[in-house]
Design goal:
about 60 residues
Length: about 60
């Protein structure tokens, strides 16, 4: 099974969503102080990048 551009972007999107959820979860449950806000903000940023990767599927 060969991986084309769309398959690679789909895997990248999936990994970015998992990392975003992990970072938001760390921000909520592990770090209750100010550092948690940073973790959650970076997790939302991962979601934004995953959205861009998903939008690029079929266009590159």
């Amino acid at each position: 099974m060969g991986m084309n551009k769309n398959t690679i972007l789909a895997w990248a999107t999936f990994i970015m969503i998992l990392m975003g959820l992990l970072l938001i979860g760390l921000g909520i449950y592990r770090y209750a102080d100010v550092a948690g806000w940073g973790f959650a903000a970076v997790g939302v940023g991962f979601f934004a990048i995953a959205w861009v990767f998903n939008a690029l599927k079929g266009r590159v």
